[in-house]
Design a protein that fits this description.
mainly beta; 39% strand; three-stranded antiparallel beta sheet; 2 domains; 12 strands; 139 residues; five-stranded antiparallel beta sheet
Length: 139
Amino acid sequence: MPKRVIVLTVSPQPIYKEDRKAAEAITPGDLVDMNATGDLVKQVTAAINVVRDVAVEREEMGKDIDVPYAINDTVKVASMHQGQKFLGWLAAGNNVTQGTKLESAGAGSFRILAAGVAVARAEESVNAVARSRCTMTWM
């Protein structure tokens, strides 16, 4: 069975950080940002140019991409760069095909570009009836 990971780019590797705690439940693949107290939350603002920080799994602790971080857990974050691939969350109600441009949807997810800033591109077709994982590349 293939390894289930959030970061899909082998080289160059993103910069990993483990210096912030969760202010809310965060699932690997969530787009994250700091709140006013310096804790991590799901990125809340839609349609903006976002910091390319994505919560990732704690493989070294035996946890995979389906194990969320609880409030006050230290969150492992990948700071990524243009061209790097990852497994992110597509907001419910978005049906994408390979090449669809995406923007932040808030709540740590992405949606089809509407009127904001294209920050990522879908690398596969996904019919997101509910919030769904999708392979993406940072633009």
